[in-house]
Amino acid sequence: MKEKLKSIVLVLLVVGSLVESYYLMYRLPGSDSVIKSATSYIKTEYMGPESDVESLIYPNKMIIHMGEDKHTIFYPNSTFYNLIFSRLEGRSFDSFQRRSLQDINMAEIRTQNPGIELSFGEGVPVSLLQRVMQIQPDSLFQAEQINRIWIYNVSSESKARALFFSTEGDVVYEAGKADLTAQDVQQHVDFGQSWIPYSSVNGSYYIPETEVEMVAATIGVDAYTSEQMQRSLFFDPSITRNIKEKDGSEIYTDSKRSLQVRQEQKWMSYSDPAALPDGEDDIAKEVLAAVDFVNQHGGWNGDYRLSLAGGGIDQNEVEFQQYYGTYPILETPQFQYGLIKLNLHQGTVSTYERSLIYIQPEEAKKEMKTLSGGDDLRYKLKSISQQSEIVDLYPAYLPTRTDKGLQLKPVWAVNLKSGAVIVLD
């Protein structure tokens, strides 16, 4: 009996020891598992607000076609833009049919049919677009990336038509069922009747017929420190080495990962080349992983919009464009600011670049400025178009860092077919 009791006690001690070892190895009191998968990033100190992917997906502009070749444009965060987009988010689109762009008279639709054109720039995967719009699952185009949605009226038809344009270029999907009446579309179009008139240039871009007013701002700024980013990006910052380069930049490395900080421009570049798994990439999953990574390593100090680098051609590159109010902030070779860039493979980040500077909006000093329009603007664009085809024109902010903070200067940004961006004051 005594021996049997000793055996039971021994078994209990062994089991208890194993349980204790498990908790010591895998958990810490009040924390999650210490051992993480390759795509589960460690939560670090709070640096900036978090966001979700739904808040980062929206059109970069909304072109209102009023018939008789009359047009206007609403940009993000403007009153009519927000009103129209919020209504469209609640409408459903279903029963898609694949069509060829060559079979659709886009010039006639643009000039004669009242409608709303949503531009998504370089494109958004359908699976992500479904997170912000009621697009019913459809195997026909589920794997596509959409760069435009065009909702328009046809005379004598009570229902509106909806076209979804693929980034492939010549492929269009028409929704057989669109939860929008012709009256709904006309009501939205009527918002543009009293707005700035725009003229189409070969259907590629639009020129305002009057000057465009913008807010110029000088905004107070602060910056993350190199030590903050070091603690955020390395699993064990205590084993990293600090190397100072001749150009003034600093490099932190643990022999596998590296963090380079260019102090003059307050720009950081993180690299983890060892984190490249094999297998097929999915751009939608890469975007979700990118949002999660930024949430935990710097956050979103400002308003951003998803912008896929290269139109989604490179399935691994994801960019987020920063906005101030209604317009984007341009990144320039002289001053890198306005973009968060990531390269991912199967949800694992291999490179991460961003500015360490973040703005303090409550410290902004503002004044109104005007951008040229009409014939004055056409004259400025003429010489540019003779050198390279213009594919887009839009108001933007040119950032400059001064001793008073971040100066945002209103400019016209001209996108060329070559991929270059030219700034017009």
Walk me through the topology.
Elements: H1 2-26, E1 61-65, E2 71-74, H2 79-89, E3 92-100, H3 106-112, E4 115-125, H4 126-129, E5 134-135, E6 145-152, E7 161-166, E8 171-178, H5 182-190, E9 198-201, E10 205-208, E11 212-223, H6 226-233, E12 241-244, E13 250-253, E14 258-262, E15 267-271, H7 283-296, E16 303-307, E17 317-324, E18 327-328, E19 339-345, E20 348-355, E21 357-371, H8 374-387, E22 390-402, E23 405-416, E24 421-424
Parallel strand pairs: 3-5
Antiparallel strand pairs: 1-2, 1-4, 3-8, 4-6, 6-7, 7-8, 9-10, 11-21, 11-23, 12-13, 13-14, 14-15, 15-20, 16-17, 17-18, 17-19, 19-20, 22-23, 23-24
Supply the number of helical segments: 8
Helix content: 10-25%
**Alpha-carbon distance between the two ends:** 96 Å
Oligomer: single chain
- What global shape is seen? globular
Number of strands: 24
Task: Kindly provide the radius of gyration, computed on alpha-carbon positions and rounded to a whole number of angstroms.
Answer: 26 Å
Total number of domains: 3
Protein name: Regulatory protein YycH domain-containing protein
Description:
The protein folds into three domains: 53-212, no CATH class; 218-360, YycH protein, domain 2 (TATA-Binding Protein, 2-Layer Sandwich), CATH 3.30.310; 362-424, no CATH class. Helix content is 22%, strand content 39%. It contains eight helices and 24 strands. It has helices at residues 2-26, 79-89, 106-112, 126-129, 182-190, 226-233, 283-296, 374-387; strands at 61-65, 71-74, 92-100, 115-125, 134-135, 145-152, 161-166, 171-178, 198-201, 205-208, 212-223, 241-244, 250-253, 258-262, 267-271, 303-307, 317-324, 327-328, 339-345, 348-355, 357-371, 390-402, 405-416, 421-424. The strands form four sheets. Strands 12, 13, 14, 15, 16, 17, 18, 19 and 20 form a nine-stranded antiparallel beta sheet that branches. It has an eight-stranded mixed beta sheet with strand order 2-1-4-6-7-8-3-5. Strands 11, 21, 22, 23 and 24 form a five-stranded antiparallel beta sheet that branches. The longest helix is centred in the first third of the chain and has 25 residues, at 2-26. 30% of the residues are buried. Residues 21-42 have low confidence and may be disordered.
